[in-house]
Amino acid sequence: MINNALNGKKLPVYGDGKNVRDWLYMEDHCKAIDLVQQKGRDGETYNIGGHNEKQNIEIVETIIDVLREYLPDTDPRKAHITKDLIEHVTDRKGHDRRYAIAPDKIKAELGWEPETMFKEGIRKTIVWYMAYTFDLARLLVDMIPSEKYGYYHATNEGGYISWYDFTVEIYKQAGYSTKVIPVTTAEYGLSKAKRPFNSRLDKSKLAENGFEPLPTWQDALHRYLEELKRAEMD
């Protein structure tokens, strides 16, 4: 929906759009899973719900509203992001009218409940999407009609880096003079997973098939930091 809206494409909504779903922000979900792993009873089942029941049409309208709030008036995409993009399509057969989660057990036993309501969560999602995943989404959209099938590796340009290099660049672009001290896996000592020292993907097939490469990772990081600043100002 976000990608379609940014590109002025129709936003298909099943039926009258009044099917209800419970929405949960990804970070809250991860926190719940981590809590269950640490403190949950072995063999028990815990429902994780967001207390954010929304109709599908509400979700689409909220995405439109947040994008319009978020994009500056100088961005040419803003003009076509309106509710006119919404297109009601034939409903799925047997489409459930409502899904609901009862998270009473996880709250009672473990004290967990979601921290992020829907409007805040979708705003955070859009900020993250605009900076990091939009480039990949653009590439996928370019690939779909091309019929150039097969396996492709896609990562940002800008050279190979370590997590240390990436962290240093974050502080640099954010304007901090924080000293970053690299720590080896052996020194860290807490990870049980065997981590490869060097992970690289061969992206040559993308260029060979005429696809536009992704921007540099430095550029992606810069845009992400700019989006965070703008979100904080809003």
The counted number of beta strands is 4
* Uncertain ranges: none
Distance between the termini: 22 Å
Percentage beta strand: 5-15%
Order of helices and strands: HEEHEHEHHHHHH
The helix/strand class is: mainly alpha
Biggest β-sheet strands, sense, barrel:
2 strands, parallel
Strand order of the largest sheet: 1-4
What Rg do the Cα atoms give?
A: 21 Å
Number of helical stretches of at least 4 residues? 9
Q: Helical residue percent?
A: 40-55%
Mean pLDDT: 87
Overall geometry: globular
Layout of strands and helices, then pairs:
Blueprint: H1 2-6, E1 11-14, E2 20-22, H2 26-39, E3 53-55, H3 56-70, E4 86-89, H4 104-110, H5 118-143, H6 163-174, H7 185-188, H8 204-208, H9 217-233
Structural features:
45% helix; 234 residues
What does this structure look like?
The strands form two sheets. This protein has a two-stranded parallel ribbon. Strands 2-3 form a two-stranded antiparallel ribbon. It has nine helices and four strands; from the N terminus they run H-E-E-H-E-H-E-H-H-H-H-H-H. It has 234 residues and is mainly alpha-helical. The model has no long low-confidence stretch (mean pLDDT 87). The radius of gyration is 21 Å and the shape is globular. The chain has helices at residues 2-6, 26-39, 56-70, 104-110, 118-143, 163-174, 185-188, 204-208, 217-233, and strands at residues 11-14, 20-22, 53-55, 86-89.
Write a concise synopsis of the structure shown:
With 234 residues, this protein is mainly alpha-helical. The chain has helices at residues 2-6, 26-39, 56-70, 104-110, 118-143, 163-174, 185-188, 204-208, 217-233; strands at 11-14, 20-22, 53-55, 86-89. Helix 5 (118-143) runs antiparallel to helix 9 (217-233) and helix 6 packs across helix 9.
